[in-house]
């Protein structure tokens, strides 16, 4: 085995952890079903994905994808317009691919979760009631029936790796399922709203931007409690709370 200088903890919380050992990423998950989904989804997806090196119960090892992340929440993306367009074109291919066998959360479940999290944010004084009310109003545009598509489920910009204008690979497929294509686009542009046009240049402009804005609100409202309870700060500049505040200016 090739010696390495260190083991880097990429992310770690009570549900899962990802470690980097040289050019190998090792994912440890308390729910092995998520790793099963990840492996199968990468095999089905018509876009570049990491090489699976080995798989054992609760553990998955994948090869490093070359290049730089398309962006990171809380920091303006420095990737080129061409890279964003390439990512958009790849996501369009994914959304038009045959459906995977797993179904993501349904509309009724998502509405119930959203209402629960809105109540918690207000009851615990985490956010002003008017801010939550306004974003719940914006969120309504996203909460409509959708045609199921093959979705990644967690298309953060840090899950895309690019070199110049080229897409090298998309990582972290454990949430892949049948879902709403516009939710994927919303997650990609969360906190990167100024890059939406670049993304749509590759994806196509036949989308309802009001629905994407609605998903920005849904995603930020429903993720906040989990982030707080797992040691992350949604009030970091450019992150979820700033996304919610921006809706007051729409």
UniProtKB/TrEMBL annotation:
It comes from Paractinoplanes abujensis. Residues 45-205 form the Aminoglycoside phosphotransferase domain. This is Aminoglycoside phosphotransferase (APT) family kinase protein. Keywords: Kinase, Transferase. InterPro entries: Aminoglycoside_PTrfase, Kinase-like_dom_sf. It comes from the Bacteria. GO terms for molecular function: kinase activity. Gene3D superfamilies: 3.90.1200.10. Pfam families: APH.
């Amino acid at each position: 085995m090739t010696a390495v200088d260190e083991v880097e903890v990429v992310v770690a919380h009570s549900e899962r952890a990802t470690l980097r050992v040289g050019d190998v990423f090792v994912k440890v998950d308390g729910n092995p079903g998520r790793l099963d989904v990840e492996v199968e989804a990468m095999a089905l997806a018509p876009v570049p994905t990491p090489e699976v090196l080995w798989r054992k119960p609760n553990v998955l090892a994948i090869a490093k994808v070359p290049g730089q992340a398309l962006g990171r929440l809380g920091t303006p993306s420095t990737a080129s317009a061409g890279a964003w367009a390439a990512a958009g074109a790849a996501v369009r291919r994914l959304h038009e691919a045959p459906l995977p066998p797993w179904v993501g959360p349904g509309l009724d479940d998502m509405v119930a979760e959203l209402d629960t999290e809105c109540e918690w944010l207000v009851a615990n004084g985490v956010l002003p009631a008017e801010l939550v009310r306004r974003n719940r109003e914006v969120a309504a545009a996203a909460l409509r029936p959708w045609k199921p598509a093959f979705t990644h489920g967690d298309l953060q910009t840090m899950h895309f790796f690019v070199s110049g204008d080229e897409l090298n690979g998309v990582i972290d497929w454990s949430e892949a399922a049948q879902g709403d294509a516009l939710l994927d686009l919303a997650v990609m542009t969360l906190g990167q709203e100024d890059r939406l046009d670049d993304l749509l240049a590759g994806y196509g402009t036949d989308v309802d931007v009001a629905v994407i804005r609605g998903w920005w609100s849904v995603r930020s409202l429903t993720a906040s409690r989990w982030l707080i309870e797992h040691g992350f700060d949604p009030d970091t500049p450019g992150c979820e709370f700033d996304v919610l505040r921006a809706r007051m200016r729409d």
